[in-house]
Design goal:
about 70 residues; about 0% strand
Amino acid sequence: MMETLIWGGAAISMVGLIGLIWCVLTVWRARKAGQTDEELRGTMRRVVPVNTGALLLSILGLMVVVLGIMLG
C-alpha cells in the first residue's frame, strides 16, 4: 500500500515537472522568436495557468511521496 503511494506520488510529480519544463521552453522559444510585447504577453497569459497547475501537481505529488514514506 505504501509503495503504491510513493510510486503514485512520484508519477504525479513527474507530470508536474514535465509541465514546468514545457512552460519554460514555451516562453524561451517565444522570447527567442522576437515576438512583440503584445504577442509575448499573450504567450505568457496562456502559460501562467499551466505553470500554476504544473507546480500544484509537483507539490501534491511530493506530499504523497512524503506521506507514503511516513506511513511506511
